[in-house]
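Quick one:
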Amino acid sequence: MTSTEVLVIVGGVALGYWLVAVVWPLLSGRDNESSTSADGERPWHEVLGVPANADRATIDAAHQSKRAEHLPERIAQLSADARAQAQRRRMQIDRAYAQAMRRFN
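Output:
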């Protein structure tokens, strides 16, 4: 067996392990319909600040107001850490909104 063959085998094993250990859980967590996401975030209705049985108009209004709190224009003068935190919060709000909208589709 040549060194190239060994290198290909080791690379294939490493790639396979990475796919199973990292990518697969991320993809399978995407279809999770439970109220709490796989990474331990709060339920969507708590993130948006609405009751779990809220109607679509209430959810839309809550999403817009929560997202407006973290707009880049409003936080531009803050530190890089604060801007990064606001971006993570916007992403959390958007994920919660997407989960809520799955109920209506």
